[in-house]
Design brief:
Elements: H1 2-23, H2 25-38, E1 44-50, H3 58-70, H4 73-79, E2 80-84, E3 90-95, H5 97-104, E4 109-114
Antiparallel strand pairs: 1-3, 1-4, 2-3
Helix pairs in contact: 3-4
Length: about 130
């Protein structure tokens, strides 16, 4: 029974990752293009997986976690793209490489991964 529970949770997390990727696609493209044109370490979209907050609204917890790294609640709200609350707990945000290193060390942060875009279906080649 534990194996079934494990694989159910794994399937939910994989689905969550795909949804996160799809939702942050447009933001990732714009930050990738800006970084490529400037040649600097511009912020890029990352998915930050966190523990589920206890006794606090998820979005407030995500903003507080970001504020610890970015220095202010306003900067955190500007960087925050989306708060995930259902299948898993986490958020997507625009972060520089240095900020990624800092946020990965924050209490309650489980993992920080760059947002990636995957094409699930290719063009129709039957024509």
């Amino acid at each position: 029974m534990n194996a079934l529970r494990f694989f159910s949770k794994l399937a939910i997390l994989v689905s969550f990752a795909l949804v996160c990727t799809a939702m942050s696609d447009s933001a990732a493209k714009s930050t990738d293009a800006a970084a490529a044109s400037s040649g600097s370490a511009a912020p890029a979209v990352h998915i930050v997986y966190t523990e589920r907050p206890q006794g606090e609204e998820p979005e407030a917890y995500h903003i507080r976690t970001l504020s610890n790294v970015l220095g202010s609640e306003d900067a955190a709200k500007e960087a925050l793209l989306y708060s995930y609350k259902s299948a898993a707990s986490g958020f997507s945000a625009k972060l520089t490489p240095e900020q990624v290193e800092q946020i990965a060390k924050q209490p309650g942060v489980l993992q920080v991964v760059p947002s990636r875009t995957y094409q699930l279906h290719g063009p129709n080649k039957l024509q």
